[in-house]
Amino acid sequence: MSSSELRLTALDALHRSLGATMTDFAGWDMPLRYGSERDEHTAVRTAAGLFDLSHMGEITVTGPQAAQLLNFALVGNIASVGVGRARYTMICQADGGILDDLIVYRLGETEYMVVANASNAQVVLDALTERAAGFDAEVRDDRDAYALIAVQGPESPGILASLTDADLDGLKYYAGLPGTVAGVPALIARTGYTGEDGFELFVKPEHAVELWQALTKAGEGVGLVPCGLSCRDTLRLEAGMPLYGHELSRELTPFDAGLGRVVKFEKEGDFVGRAALREAAENAGHEPPRVLVGLIAEGRRVPRAGYAVVADGEVIGEVTSGAPSPTLGKPIAMAYVDAGHATPGTAGIGVDIRGSHEPYEVVALPFYKRQK
Q: Pick from 142, 150, 218, 222: most CB atoms within 10 A?
């Protein structure tokens, strides 16, 4: 895809004026980094970072049977989400394979917003549209209706509080409320993908630039910096958060990924994938074939997705994500490994990095958990 065919966010010119290094991400031209990705990462952990996430896919589901449709289409119990709250969930195939992981916001009694990963937005839209047959509900593609700006990190509540009179103290994690930020109407959600406290602000694309500039100004004294996708990846990796196409795929069920808790068998009615997922849940009760674990390097070489995990000369797993961890000061990875080698503290594990078996220690996820 040539750069002329890439989709641009409403903040595209602003990123370029800030000297961003741009990259093709799921068909969008997105900022990879503005300066040092390590500095951007550290800013989010210690102060605050500002992200353009307008590539995410928003899908609105409305109507008298919106809740029933989402309960049927997704694995979670969406009908039990209160107005103004959000839930992490997944959409699966009939065979239990994961099509995407999602956040669903309940905006009103009969209105929900489903936020899909950029790479899967069309797939999720098509699946929801197909699954809506027979329900009194409408599925609407709202990908062009929103820009999404995130402010993440310990200073983010103070930065946002200086620009809004919305009750941020009363806004719990995984909740969202309509408000005004710097004079711009926004859905203010206390969600994020960094392992830090933070907010995601859904606004009309035409308001994105003024909101970004207002947040930048409000964060000047407290260390806020613009952040690209590169540090977003190392932040979510340290926080043990899965990324579709790496830890999650159509070949894996939520139980394979260690996220069986998102599947709610107790909810009313049938849902797509129920039978296959019931079987996966029962199998997971025995020895799962492979388990998602954390790996910390003893050396300096960085593991990458697809590298083999080895023990005693045998391949026992595969790295799904790997990067240097700015917070831990050493390379880390998430990997699926045979259950017999998945216990934290397991020694004698290596990652095959270009023919050399580099030593790694198995640890429990996440690598990093913020102090609350």
A: 150
Close Cβ partners of 67 (under 8 Å, ≥ 6 residues apart): 78, 79, 110, 112
The rounded distance, in Å, linking the Cα atoms of 71 and 271 is: 7
The tens-digit pLDDT sequence of the chain (372 residues) is: 555 699 999 999 999 999 999 999 999 999 999 999 999 999 999 999 999 999 999 999 999 999 999 999 999 999 999 999 999 999 999 999 999 999 999 999 999 999 999 999 999 999 999 999 999 999 999 999 999 999 999 999 999 999 999 999 999 999 999 999 999 999 999 999 999 999 999 999 999 999 999 999 999 999 999 999 999 999 999 999 999 999 999 999 999 999 999 999 999 999 999 999 999 999 877 767 899 999 999 999 999 999 999 999 999 999 999 999 999 999 999 999 999 999 999 989 999 999 999 999 999 999 999 987
Spatial distance between the Cα atoms of 176 and 154, rounded to a whole number of angstroms? 18
363 close to 353: Cβ distance less than 8 angstroms: no
Distance between first and last Cα of the chain: 43
Per-residue H/E/C for 282-326 = HHHCCCCCEEEEEEEECCCCCCCCCCEEEECCEEEEEEEEEEEEC
Cβ neighbors of 81 (< 8 A, separation 6 or more) are 87, 104, 106
Look up residue 273 and give its two tokens. 């994938």
Distance between CA atoms of residues 190 and 150, nearest Å: 10
Which residue type sits at 11?
A: L
d(CA 101, CA 49): 24
| Distance between CA atoms of residues 232 and 227, nearest Å | 8
Nearest to 117 by CA among 191, 56, 28, 51: 56
Cis upstream peptide for 31 (omega within 30°) = no
CA distances from 193 to 17, 88, 103, 111, 190 (A): 26, 11, 11, 24, 11
